[in-house]
């Protein structure tokens, strides 16, 4: 009997040791040390699985299950490493829904062969050792009746009870580290365990098994009535934002709203082929429509005229350490579920009669009589938008798969819906224009959120990518050597047999070659195809502006253009901007475009001493997609409960600030779902270690940063409870 037990325990030992070896590998390659801070919490979960499988009477079956779990752990090591290398993220449960995209979008740039080889060798060694143990264990023939003898059953139950008790005790201990009613709660390991709101910090503290257990336990966690009441009281106590808070409140009252989220767009897409961190090199040559939105058409006619004041705002410190679905939610909902996905709270199981997300931008505007539409130039099922967005307040949710022509037939075939089969963005805008700008525009105002795809990447020639084919010649050689073929919809060389030496490069292409060819020739070609996507986006914006002018409603429409994140494909942004591949903390690397065209701002003197010499309004506050809803509501004159949103209007002064080189800088905190907390000059991934950007270390600024982090985390905590428990309809929103 004892020999039987020892043989069985040998297999348990094999699994536990294998899991710990792989855990050490994970922590090493992610730069986290050797083992998690809460080692015994993680170890208890490993032991729980080991003893659970211990029940299986067959050694071979045990070995198979153990090796499968260890194999999955090895796969997750690689997944986390690759995600971290790409844009500093780690895996979370909501990413499971993106497996199709991940497979389709994968390129050789995302495959780290040396890491794969190391993991394979480690895993093979673990499997071989396990097989040797299996052979040894098989020498002891165990019958099922022996396996389930009273002694064995009592031993199994005793061990499992001990492990479960220890795990619960550890969890209770971590939960006791902060008072749930105290602001200390949100800066404690308790909040981190229950939300995993900072992935890297959570992983390093709780380990692989602890991290994923926390994610599973935290999903849709229902809160008791007392905490619900406290949450409702928090939102009811929120200040109501109105005209007393802003000089621009209501300058665009009643306007139509078009918000365009530009996939992976960088400021240098609108430039002359060079990178200028101050964005003073914007160029008309390749993106004339965006240039016109910023500078105004009159500026193009007479660039020497200094008395032009356009109706646009450029936010030069707009920031996103994010992925597409996060940035999109920030601009639609004002937040994103921590450790979850939108499908978890607004998907199939959601009861639309709850009206729980009517504080979203489409929800608020729909209640004000707006026609609300969501339009995406790829399949609408990506990120389950077909399941979630109607519950977020959109009347119409449109993608390539449900765009119809005038006769009600699908515009795109099944082949057109493949990941790498992208229509030219301008052509998509033409096909979807009646969704972007509804034909009943004269009966009620409209709000449209339009997500583009043309600049997503990867940046190489693709015969199925419309803008890549359409613009590749024009980007290089321009109108001097190219002619537009209306039949093919492409710019073609006038002399198809011409050699590059016989052609005149555009100013953009000349600058690209001069700046990058000697050091990184591949980057020159990648930038060509990236710029093709930017030209496609620019064409789509031109289509929209032309239609607004045709309907004579351009001056009644506010347009917001913003990027979701920097271009992480091929580390393009890192290479152009001059940042290391593994730089995940830099503020400037993650600084991307935000442009607002607002008719009401035409004569508004914001942060300028003399509007006579300004062609656009320059906003220098550190800001993000969280700020889009409050800013648009401010322009429209829509009062809102400030506690419901993580952002602030760009037109209001904030209470908290710090000094930087004699300048008063607003203390704004950005929470990144991919990891970490940022302000304009400081980054932290654990609220203990700080990285300073553009300034020396300063304890006073750290203290102010931490105080504002505390405020934003308190708000995040209540918003999480609000969303998980569908409480908005219980809020008076006074």
Structure, explained:
There is one protein chain. This protein is of the alpha/beta class and 734 residues long. It has two domains: 2-176, no CATH class; 240-730, Alkaline Phosphatase, subunit A. Helix content is 44%, strand content 9%. Strands 5-4-6-2-9-10-3-11 form an eight-stranded mixed β-sheet, sandwiched between helices. It has a four-stranded antiparallel β-sheet with strand order 15-16-17-18, covered by helices on one side. Strands 1-12 form a two-stranded antiparallel sheet. Helix 3 (59-87) runs antiparallel to helix 5 (113-138), helix 10 (225-236) crosses helix 24 and helix 17 runs parallel beside helix 21 (521-550). The protein starts with a helix and ends in a 10-residue tail after the last helix.
Please describe the structure with a list of short key phrases separated by commas or semicolons.
Alkaline Phosphatase, subunit A, 8-stranded mixed β-sheet, 18 strands, 2 domains, alpha/beta, 734 residues, 4-stranded antiparallel β-sheet
Q: What fold name goes in the CATH topology slot of the largest domain?
A: Alkaline Phosphatase, subunit A
Query: Low-confidence spans: pLDDT under 50, at least 5 residues?
Result: 299-309, 606-612
Q: How would you sum up the major sheet?
A: 8 strands, mixed
Separate helix tally: 24
What does the average pLDDT come to?
87
Distance between the termini: 71 Å
* CATH classification class of the largest domain: Alpha Beta
Beta-strand proportion: 5-15%
Q: Order of strands across the widest beta sheet?
A: 5-4-6-2-9-10-3-11
Outline = globular
Overall strand count:
18
């Amino acid at each position: 009997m004892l020999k039987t037990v020892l043989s069985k325990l040998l297999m348990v030992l094999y699994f536990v040791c294998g899991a710990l070896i792989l855990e050490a590998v994970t922590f090493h390659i992610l730069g986290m040390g050797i083992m998690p801070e809460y080692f015994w919490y993680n170890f208890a979960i490993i032991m729980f699985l080991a003893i659970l499988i211990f029940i299986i009477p067959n050694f071979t079956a045990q070995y198979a299950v153990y090796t499968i779990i260890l194999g999955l752990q090895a796969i997750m090591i690689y997944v986390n490493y690759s995600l971290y290398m790409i844009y500093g993220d780690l895996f979370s449960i909501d990413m499971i829904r993106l497996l199709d995209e991940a497979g389709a979008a994968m390129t050789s740039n995302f495959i780290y062969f040396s890491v794969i080889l190391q993991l394979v060798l480690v895993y093979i060694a673990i499997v071989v050792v396990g097989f040797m143990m299996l052979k040894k264990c098989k020498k002891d023939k165990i019958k099922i009746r022996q396996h389930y003898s009273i002694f064995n059953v009592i031993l199994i139950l005793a061990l499992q009870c001990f492990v479960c008790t220890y795990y619960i005790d550890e969890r209770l201990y971590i939960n006791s580290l902060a008072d749930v009613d105290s602001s200390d709660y949100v800066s404690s390991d308790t909040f981190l365990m229950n939300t995993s709101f900072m992935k890297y910090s959570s992983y390093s503290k709780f380990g692989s098994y602890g991290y994923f257990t926390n994610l599973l336990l935290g999903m849709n966690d229902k809160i008791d009535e007392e905490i619900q009441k406290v949450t409702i009281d928090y939102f009811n106590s929120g200040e109501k934002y109105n005209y007393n808070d802003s000089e621009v409140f209501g300058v665009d009252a009643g306007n139509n709203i078009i918000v365009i989220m530009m996939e992976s767009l960088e400021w240098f897409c609108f430039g002359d082929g060079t990178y200028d961190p101050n964005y003073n090199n914007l160029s008309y040559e390749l993106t004339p429509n965006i240039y016109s939105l910023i500078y105004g058409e009159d500026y193009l006619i007479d660039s020497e005229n200094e008395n032009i004041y356009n109706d646009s705002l450029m936010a030069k410190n707009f920031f996103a350490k994010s992925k597409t679905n996060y940035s999109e939610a920030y601009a639609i909902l004002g937040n994103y579920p921590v450790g979850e996905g939108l499908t978890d709270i607004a998907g199939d199981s959601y009861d639309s009669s709850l009206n729980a997300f009517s504080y979203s931008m489409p929800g608020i505007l729909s209640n004000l009589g707006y026609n609300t539409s969501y339009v995406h130039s790829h399949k609408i099922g990506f990120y389950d938008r077909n399941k979630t967005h109607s519950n977020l307040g959109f009347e119409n949710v449109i993608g390539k798969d449900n765009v119809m022509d005038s006769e009600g037939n699908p515009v795109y075939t099944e082949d057109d819906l493949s990941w790498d089969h992208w229509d030219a963005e301008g052509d998509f805008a033409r096909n979807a224009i009646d969704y972007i700008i509804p034909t009943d525009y004269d009966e009620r105002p409209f709000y449209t959120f339009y997500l583009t795809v043309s600049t997503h990447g990867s940046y190489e020639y693709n015969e199925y990518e419309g803008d890549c084919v359409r613009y590749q010649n024009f980007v290089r050689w321009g109108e001097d050597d190219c002619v537009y073929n209306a039949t093919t919809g492409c710019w073609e060389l006038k002399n198809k047999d011409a050699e590059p030496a016989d052609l005149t490069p555009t100013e953009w292409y000349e600058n690209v070659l001069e700046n990058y060819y000697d050091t990184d020739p591949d980057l020159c070609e990648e930038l060509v195809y990236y710029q093709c996507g930017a030209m496609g986006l620019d064409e789509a914006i031109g289509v929209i502006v032309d239609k607004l002018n045709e309907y004579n409603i351009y001056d009644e429409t506010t347009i917001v253009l913003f990027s979701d994140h920097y271009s992480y494909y091929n580390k393009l942004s890192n290479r152009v901007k001059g940042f290391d591949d593994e730089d995940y903390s830099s503020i400037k690397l993650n600084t991307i475009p935000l442009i607002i065209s607002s008719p009401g701002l035409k004569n508004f003197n914001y942060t300028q001493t003399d509007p006579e010499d300004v062609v656009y309004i320059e906003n220098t506050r550190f800001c993000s997609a969280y700020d889009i809803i409050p800013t648009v509501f401010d322009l429209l004159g829509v009062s809102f409960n400030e506690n419901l949103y993580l952002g602030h209007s760009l037109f209001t002064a904030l209470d908290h600030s710090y000094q930087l080189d004699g300048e008063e800088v607003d203390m704004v905190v950005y929470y990144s779902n991919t990891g970490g907390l940022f302000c304009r000059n400081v980054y932290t991934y654990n609220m203990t270690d700080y990285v300073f950007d553009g300034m020396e270390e300063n304890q006073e600024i750290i203290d102010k940063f931490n105080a504002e982090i505390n405020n934003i985390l308190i708000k995040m905590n209540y918003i999480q409870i609000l969303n998980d428990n569908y409480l908005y309809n219980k809020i008076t929103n006074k």
